[in-house]
Amino acid sequence: MKRRILITIIAVGMIATLTACAKGPCKAGHTWVEATCTEPKTCSVCGATEGEALGHDWSVNTPNFQQAKTCSRCNETQGDPLEAEFAKKGLAVETEWDKEFTFTTPCYNDKSKTTNGKYRFSNLRIAASDDALGLETAQGYEWLIFDLICRYDDENVSKYGYTGVFNAGMDYYDTYRNPDLGTMFEPGKTDLETVDRFTVNYNGEDYPECIFLWGEYTDEWNVEGTTCISQHTIYIRIPTGYDGIIVSMIANGSDVIDKINAGEMPIDCLDDKCVNFRVVPE
What we know:
- This protein is α+β, with helices and mostly antiparallel strands and 282 residues long.
- It has two domains: 28-82, no CATH class; 85-278, no CATH class.
- 15% of the residues lie in helices and 36% in strands.
- It has helices at residues 2-22, 85-88, 155-160, 255-261, 266-269, and strands spanning 32-33, 41-43, 49-50, 58-60, 69-71, 77-78, 101-106, 114-127, 141-152, 165-171, 183-184, 198-202, 205-221, 228-239, 245-251, 275-278.
- Mean pLDDT is 87; it is low at 1-23.
């Protein structure tokens, strides 16, 4: 009798279990959430799974200066972007427009005397092209146009003149690929087809049609001859959004200039007296 009761209880339990399964939340079919990089196809109601996780799709298999190794599906990253050459060397950079930098340089007529010049980067303009200046654009590029303005107004400059600073254009990220940038440019006269191009890598893509132009330069004294204001306009064609152009200012009379003139790479010569301005659009 006891055995019959036990069998009956087991049978009733099996029937109850089968009934509950047949009447469960997914009896009409699972509500599937598609597989992701880390999870298989999964029912959002009961948690059942099917198949395997997709695994990451590392579209950026080689990190670049802007991107670490990145999955194209979920954007998970591994590691870090490449380190910029300026950062590797611990070189300080400035990015603030209209910030004033003071340089002490030898006077022009008497190198034993010095004078102080106040320099700033100003008047940033961004353009796709400028027909009036003969600036032609290319798809995916933009022109950054800005001025380097200097003011000398101390007593020595009125007596002995000034020598100013030496400027060097470089690439903040891949400096040894682009160690010394810049071609002289006269708007309306210089044929852009003849000026040097350089290549930058931006988000893993090479842009070979970059241009760096040293444009118009003016140097004006007031009537009394006590103040001189100079302005140098710079034109740069780079990929839209690129923030890796450096304009370095080096005081004339500095050992840095002697080293550069002797053939050393500018980035290997820079010291803490140089100002390295990184051209970052506001």
